[in-house]
Specification:
Layout (H helix, E strand, L loop, with lengths): L1 E14 L3 H12 L4 E5 L5 H6 L1 H20 L12 H25 L3 E4 L1 E6 L2 E6 L2 E12 L3 E3 L12 E2 L1 H6 L6 E5 L3 H13 L2 E6 L10 H13 L3 E4 L2 E5 L3 E5 L7 E5 L2 E4 L3 E3 L26 E3 L2 E3 L10 H15 L13 E3 L4 E6 L2 H6 L5 E6 L4 H6 L4 E7 L5 E8 L6 H9 L4 H5 L10 H10 L8
Parallel strand pairs: 1-2, 1-6, 2-3, 6-18, 8-15, 9-10, 9-15, 10-11
Antiparallel strand pairs: 4-5, 5-6, 7-16, 12-13, 13-14, 17-18, 19-20, 20-23, 21-22, 22-23
């Protein structure tokens, strides 16, 4: 049923109920706006339902399964088995708990939730399609948080069984014997480590000359070393061109450029994501969408009159924590409050083995920017906590400018993702090397490694030279 062009007026409209969208809805409701939230799929978006949360849960499962080999040297003899049906149930249960929690928060805040596919029909109006029903909404302000969608390769169409995306890998209740991942970015690295620990024979295919091409070369080398230690095969500088009955066809392995088949009973296409602006016909609102798919916005996330865009739709890293930070900025701006999205740093984390953390500028980036930087690299082998955890490979690096202000923190090693909060706070608040070095850190904790790196940079190292 189509309800003509008769429209319903709404105050503040949010399109998309991922982390950015539901955060925007909750913040707007707190500020007294009447909020309508439209979601075409599930509350929580990709992050909670098929991305960040289930993938990190699977990584924890894999780490627990692989622990038996690690603790043997500690005097503990243990064996374990993997039941992927139960693993899948565990992941699904965790997702249900989190999404139902968000749903209750929205309900308690008085947010009206509509299920359907929203599309702009003209400035200040959207249609919401749900089955055979179409409803039109005229909004005062709108915040668009439709996120991004997986990039698909024409020569590797997803079939939902043998060739799948990351969501398909996480949704399976069977463990592939031979898994080939096309894409060596953070998703490929994280899933590669997890499935290798669970017992799959894993190969990563990456067109660039190394994995994690968005990170510095030294970090990539340490990650590649960790992948090889897990038995993961690496085909860098290679291109996936198709499939045959045995597996994935790859070019670039042979010196003469011939094609090689990598055995695979499952192929995961994880080459990246693209902003999802076209599915809501955002240009009809008057917003400008760049060739990259990103929406052009100003510091308040304003895209056009009455319309704001946040999250993966906007330039910058496609990360949930960026989206939630932008959500408050956009809502404040829509409510006439002073607002600007201008972070000094956005933390980047890879939950591989080893983990990777990058905040602010690396030494090379700071040098290229003319900042005259200095740095100190603290080895985790000198950390008491790393020793007790049995993860001593890796480093924590602090980068400072010529005035001693911390402008970057990078870390590679076990559990270093937990340093992200302190690292980004240091950069965001322009803390100095002496601020970190002079702050008492609990012993033994991994956080001490930041203090140790700062002490080294200040010229008075304790547990290293």
């Amino acid at each position: 049923m189509v309800v003509g062009e008769v429209s319903t007026p709404v105050d503040l409209l949010v399109i998309g109920a991922g982390p950015g969208g539901y955060t925007a809805a909750l913040h707007a409701a707190r500020l007294g706006r009447e909020v309508t939230l439209v979601e075409r799929d599930a509350i929580g978006g990709t992050c909670l339902n098929s991305g960040c949360i289930p993938s990190k849960a699977l990584i924890e499962v894999a780490d627990a399964y692989a622990m038996s080999g690690k603790i043997r040297a500690w005097g503990i003899d243990s064996t374990s088995t993997v039941d992927m049906t139960q693993v899948r149930a565990h992941l699904d249960g965790m997702v249900r708990e989190l999404t139902s929690g968000v749903d209750k928060l929205l309900s308690d805040a008085g947010v009206q939730i509509l299920t359907g596919h929203a599309r702009f029909t003209r400035p200040s109006r959207v249609s919401v399609e749900h089955g055979d029903t179409v409803e039109f909404l005229d909004f005062t302000d709108a915040i668009v948080a439709t996120g991004s969608r997986s990039i698909e390769l024409p020569n590797l169409p997803l079939d939902g069984a043998r060739v799948v995306g990351s969501a398909g890998l996480l949704a399976s209740d069977s463990l592939p014997e031979h898994l080939v991942l096309v894409g060596g970015g953070y998703v490929g690295v994280e899933l590669g480590c997890a499935f290798a620990k669970l017992g799959s024979e894993v190969t990563i295919v990456e067109m660039a000359d190394r994995v994690l091409p968005g990170f510095d070369a030294r970090t990539a080398r340490l990650v590649e070393r960790g992948l090889r230690r897990l038995g993961v095969g690496l085909c860098t500088g290679c291109r996936a061109v198709g499939t045959d009955e045995h597996g994935l066809l790859v070019e670039g392995i042979k010196p003469n450029g011939g094609t090689v088949t990598l055995p695979a009973d499952r192929i995961g296409v994880v080459v990246g994501r693209r902003p999802d602006a076209d599915s809501v016909a955002l240009t009809r609102s008057g917003a400008i969408v760049e060739p990259s798919g990103h929406v052009r916005v100003d510091a308040t996330r304003w895209a056009t009159d009455g319309v704001y865009a946040i999250g993966d739709l906007t330039p910058g890293p496609a990360l949930a924590h960026k989206a939630t930070a932008e959500a408050e900025v956009a809502v404040d701006a829509a409510c006439g409050r002073p607002a600007a999205f201008d972070p000094a740093a956005i933390p980047m984390v890879v939950f591989g083995d080893p983990q990777v953390l990058s905040v602010g500028l690396t030494l090379d980036e700071a040098t290229e920017a003319g900042r005259t930087p200095s740095s100190f690299r603290f080895p985790l082998g000198a950390s008491g906590r790393a020793r007790t955890l049995g993860d001593t490979e890796g480093t924590v690096t602090v980068v400072a400018d010529m005035e001693g202000t911390v402008i970057g923190v990078q870390a590679v090693g076990g559990h270093v993702a937990e340093l992200a909060g302190e690292a980004v706070l240091a950069v965001e608040t322009a803390a100095t090397v002496e601020d970190i070095a002079g702050t008492i850190h609990a012993h033994p904790t991994l956080g001490e490694s930041l203090m140790e790196a700062a002490l080294g940079l200040a010229g008075r190292p304790v547990h290293t030279r």
